[in-house]
Amino acid sequence: MVSLLLYPALLLINLPNHAAVSWYWPTPLGAGQPVVSSLGLFAVLLAFICNATVFVRRRHPWVTWGAGAVMVLLGQFDPLLLFVGTHALIVHRGGRQATIGTIAAGVIGVWVVIRNAIAPLHWTVMLDPVSLPTGQRVLLDLTMTGLVFVVTVMLGRMRRNRQQARAADARAVRAEGTARDLSEQLTQRAERERLAREIHDTLAHRLSLVSLHSGALEELAQSSDPTLVQAAQVVRNSAHRSLEDLRNLIGALRDPAPAGPVEQPSRIPLRGMADVTDVIDSTLAAGVKVNAFIMLSSPEEASDMLNRAVFRIVQESLTNVVKHAPGTTVGLDLRGSPGAGVSLKIRNMMTHHSSGTPGSGTGLVGMRERVGLLGGRMNAGPTGDGWFEVDVQLPWAAAAKQGR
User: Which of 103, 129, 155 lies at the terminal end of a domain, its last residue?
Assistant: First the structure.
C-alpha cells in the first residue's frame, strides 16, 4: 500500500523536470516552439522505470538505491528516490551495507546539488521560477536536501531499532519457552532418578534379606532345626513388604506428580529418622548384631529430604553389611537436633564372607549424592584397623531450606 502511494508521489515531485526535458530540449525557450525530443522521451521513460523500483525496495534495496543514483547522476532529477533507497538499506539491511549506502548517498546528494547550481547538464533545462544568485541557490538546495536526507536516515534508524527490539523480544520469548521446556525435562529426569534411587534403596535391603535367608533355608531344610520356621517367616515378611513397596513405586511412575521441585510429595511413603529402628530390626533378624545408640531431638521438624536421606543412608549401610559381612557386629551412632545437625557413624568389622548377593555398585554413590544435596560431608572406607566406617555429617539448617 505504501509503495502504491509512494510511486505516484515520486513522479509528481519530478514531473516539472520531466516536462522541461521532454518538451523544450533542444529548442531554446526563447524560440517559443515546444519540441518533443527523443532524448527527452528517453529521460522521462527512464524516470518512470527507475521510480518503479520502489516496489522492490524491501527485498532489493540496492536496486532502488542504484536507480536513484542513476537518475540524479544522468539527469536533472531530485535525489528523493536515492534517499528512499537509503532508507530501505538502513531498515532491511543494516550494518555495513547501510553505512556504505548512507555515506555514498550523502556524497552524491551534495555533489549533485553543487553541480546543478554551478554547471548543470547541457541537455537539461532548469525550471527556476525564482532567480537566485549561485551561492544562495547552493546554500538553499544544500539545506533542503540535507534536511530531507537527515530525516530519512533518522526515520530509517528508528524503524530499524523497532524491528530489532521486536526481534529481540521474540527471541527472548522463544528462549524462555526453551528454558521452561528444558527445566521441565530436567525436573522429570531428576524425579525419575530419585525414583530409581528409591527403588534401589527400598528393595535392595529386603531382597538381600530374602537372598540371605533363602540360602539358610536350603541348609536348614535337611534338618528339623526350629529356626527353620523363623527363617521362613522372615523370608515371607520381607517378600511381602517388598511387593508393597514395588506397587507404590510403580504407581508413582505411572501417575507422577506435576513438574516441580524434585523433593515433592508422591505415592512413595516417607521413611525418616524415626523409622531407622525398623531397618535395625530387619538387620538383627538377618543374623547381624547391631549395637545402636540413637538420640534425636524433634526429628519431625526436619525436612522430608533430610529425613529420607538419613533413613536411606542407614538402610544402605546395613544392607552392605548384610551382603558383604554377614554375621559381624555393627556399631551405629545416630545423633540429631536442630542446633547441632545430624551426625551418623556406622562401623562394622571387615570379613572375607559374603551373602552371595551381588551389589549394584551405586550404593555409596547414591549416599554421597544425598549428602551433597544437603550440603553435608561423608567419608566411607576402611579405617586401617580392620573396620569399615561410614561417617556422615548433615547440617540441619541447610536441610530446613528445602522446606517441608
Answer: 129
